[in-house]
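Ligand-bound model needed. adenosine-5'-triphosphate.
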Amino acid sequence: MKNMSLEEPAVQFNHVTLSYGPEQDVLTQVSMELHARSFTLLTGPSGAGKTSLLKLAYLALRPTMGSISLFGVDTGSLNRAGLARLRRRVGVVFQEFRLLDHLTAYENVALPLRVIGDSEKHYRDDVIELLRWVGLGDRLEARPETLSGGEKQRVAIARAIVGKPDLLIADEPTGNVDPEMSERLLRLFQELNKRLGTTVLIATHDQNMVDNAGGEVLRLADGSVMHQVSKNKGLIL
Ligand SMILES: Nc1ncnc2c1ncn2[C@@H]1O[C@H](COP(=O)(O)OP(=O)(O)OP(=O)(O)O)[C@@H](O)[C@H]1O
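Prediction:
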């Protein structure tokens, strides 16, 4: 039977306001929707609130006002356990990778599965296959300090998707890599979206990515207003 919950929007913001303190509204009345299996870029000037918006979407922050639903579930109605369960359906990639230095590439990717008590016998082949998919099949035992920025980011992408998330959120994933690697990372995100149907949301200043991604481009302006624009409309980033 078809799982109807997959047909719900992956992310829905309803009049979301986020304040970090009095007179410190970062987002004001933001409403937006990401359809299941969509591919979306989020752009906007520095300080507009992109990272803050992503943190709300991956449940690291709660809105000051308004409501956020993930996969049709209103996050405001959930307790800690419910939020944690929902959070497991979301993978996150950070600009600065956030790998654990004392673990190998293989161990970094396996970590989310270890944490939830999965056995190595069960996940080993999947982790190796994922590292091969990102082009690091020969670096399984490498520690992060011996990897380039692009290689680290590919380990981080593999780690973010090893739990087969329904939604992948990436915050400036190409901020620390060269243009060639940026294109390669974009292709990985696109393949993930097309082959597995993972909903992808990427915040980026990378004009190359905006020009080549396809999909939707959302622009956050003045820290508050969300415009949806199609690609190649001369965005000012
Ligand atoms: N924890 C916090 N406490 C107080 N203010 C914060 C906090 N985090 C972010 N801000 C402020 O909120 C605003 C939006 O920040 P945010 O990092 O979301 O923007 P951004 O669009 O991601 O910027 P950039 O493109 O430079 O990464 C900024 O003015 C920032 O200083």
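Residues 1-89+167-237 form a domain with the Rossmann fold fold (CATH 3.40.50.300).
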